[in-house]
């Protein structure tokens, strides 16, 4: 580090579990970029001060995580199309003291399907969840799929999301509560199943929302949970011979997109993926 070293980072609460520092610092190292990526635990009441601090200290870019993805918007000067659509920001660029908000989960999920050679056009997609991750994913895939069904434990949240999608994108989406019956009815002819809930995440690794017999070999199953790398859902999908995609690719792709926004160069994606896998397999997440 020198007096020229540029600062990047992640704000959220909590952030200690994050592996974003390993992902971004590995990219800086391999490309010889004189920068460092740190985490900042920012409580809700200090969000405005933290945002003022970005400009005051000349922090070049930030990632944003729970609980600030929505609240941060009021302190930004501009939003990308995706961030405005979703109503949530996970990346900020400090462009000469103009703070621009982006949502790279949107591109992250699309790139993930691309990398795994999954074409979304004319597909029936069942999305589990209606929280932050599900919202970004729904906006990204709704225009491509032939039908999107959102199932959530709290039905009201799924209905709100479909209303927002229909209003902003003019797409045809439906919602229901997440039950054994709704899963059975909707998964029988679904092409793609996406779990965007936190079910199955460490320490609850023996939990899954989907009964194994609903999983088929002509189905793609993507779990956004990346800790553990193979959730119970993915383990059972593998046993059913479905095509399985874990949450790491989305994590890496959204980080790569943020890197691209900050540096306007191609990110070293293989290096970033290796760093993520090394951190996860090394048990740095809890
Ligand atoms: N791979 C990636 O890049 C990536 C990116 C973002 C997030 N994630 C992961 O995605 C997961 C969700 O994150 P988020 O930010 O969307 O969280 P969130 O906003 O808190 O949403 C949580 C979602 O999970 C559902 N849920 C939680 N416990 C449940 C249970 N026991 N049964 C049924 N549904 C349950 C919630 O349903 P209700 O609405 O009924 O509460 C809600 O839909 C986390 O594991 C996170 O680590 C991964």
Outline:
The chain is of the alpha/beta class.
Overview of the molecule:
By secondary structure, the protein is an alpha/beta fold. The chain folds into two domains: 6-102 and 249-281, Leucine Dehydrogenase, chain A, domain 1 (Rossmann fold); 107-246, NAD(P)-binding Rossmann-like Domain (Rossmann fold), CATH 3.40.50.720. The protein is 39% helix and 20% strand. It is built from ten helices and twelve strands. It has helices spanning 20-30, 47-57, 81-86, 104-115, 132-142, 155-169, 180-187, 232-239, 248-263, 269-281; strands at 6-12, 35-41, 61-64, 78-79, 91-95, 98-102, 124-128, 147-152, 173-177, 192-195, 220-223, 243-245. A six-stranded mixed beta sheet has the order 2-1-3-5-6-4. A six-stranded parallel beta sheet has the order 9-8-7-10-11-12, sandwiched between helices. Helix 5 links the parallel strand 7 and strand 8 (147-152). Helix 9 (248-263) crosses helix 10. The longest helix is centred in the C-terminal third of the chain and has 16 residues, at 248-263. It is globular and about 60 Å long. It starts with 5 loop residues before the first strand and ends in a 5-residue tail after the last helix. The model has no long low-confidence stretch (mean pLDDT 96). Bound molecules: NADP nicotinamide-adenine-dinucleotide phosphate. NADP nicotinamide-adenine-dinucleotide phosphate binds at residues 66, 105, 108, 129-134, 152-154, 157, 178, 196-199, 201, 209, 224-226, 247, 250-251, 254.
Q: Tell me the series of helices and strands, N- to C-terminal.
A: EHEHEEHEEHEHEHEHEEHEHH
Please, how many domains?
A: 2
Structural class: alpha/beta
**CATH architecture grouping of the largest domain:** 3-Layer(aba) Sandwich
The average pLDDT score comes to 96
The span between the termini is: 29 Å
How would you name the CATH homologous superfamily of the largest domain? NAD(P)-binding Rossmann-like Domain
Percent of residues in β-strands: 15-25%
Sheet with the most strands?
6 strands, mixed
CATH class membership of the largest domain: Alpha Beta
How would you write the strand order of the largest sheet? Answer: 2-1-3-5-6-4
The coarse silhouette is globular
Radius of gyration, in angstroms, nearest whole number: 19 Å
Which small-molecule ligands are present, each listed once? Answer: NADP nicotinamide-adenine-dinucleotide phosphate
* Fraction in helix: 25-40%
Number of continuous helical runs: 10
């Amino acid at each position: 580090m020198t007096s020229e070293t540029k600062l990047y980072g992640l704000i959220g609460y909590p952030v200690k579990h994050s592996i974003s520092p390993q992902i971004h610092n590995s990219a800086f190292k391999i490309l010889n970029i004189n920068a460092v990526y740190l985490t900042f635990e920012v409580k809700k009441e200090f969000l405005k001060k933290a945002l003022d601090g970005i400009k005051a200290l000349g922090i070049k870019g930030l990632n944003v995580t729970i609980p600030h993805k929505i609240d941060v918007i009021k302190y930004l000067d501009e939003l990308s199309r995706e961030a405005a659509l979703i109503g949530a920001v996970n990346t900020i660029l400090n462009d000469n003291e103009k703070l621009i908000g982006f949502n790279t989960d949107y591109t992250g999920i699309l790139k993930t399907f691309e990398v795994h050679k999954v074409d979304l056009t004319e597909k029936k997609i069942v999305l589990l969840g209606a929280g932050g991750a599900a919202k970004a994913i729904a906006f990204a895939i709704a225009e491509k799929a032939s039908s999107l069904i959102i199932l959530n434990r709290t039905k009201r949240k799924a209905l709100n999301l479909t209303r927002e999608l229909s209003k902003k994108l003019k797409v045809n989406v439906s919602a229901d509560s997440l039950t054994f019956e709704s899963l059975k009815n909707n998964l029988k002819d679904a092409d793609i199943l996406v779990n965007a809930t936190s079910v199955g995440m460490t320490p609850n690794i023996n939990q899954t929302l989907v009964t194994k017999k609903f999983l088929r070999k002509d189905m793609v199953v993507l779990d956004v949970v990346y800790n553990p790398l193979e959730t119970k859902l993915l383990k059972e999908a593998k046993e059913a011979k479905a095509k399985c995609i874990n949450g790491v690719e989305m994590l890496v792709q959204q980080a790569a997109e943020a890197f691209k926004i900050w540096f306007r160069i191609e990110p070293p994606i293989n290096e970033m993926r290796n760093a993520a896998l090394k951190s996860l397999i090394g048990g740095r997440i809890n």
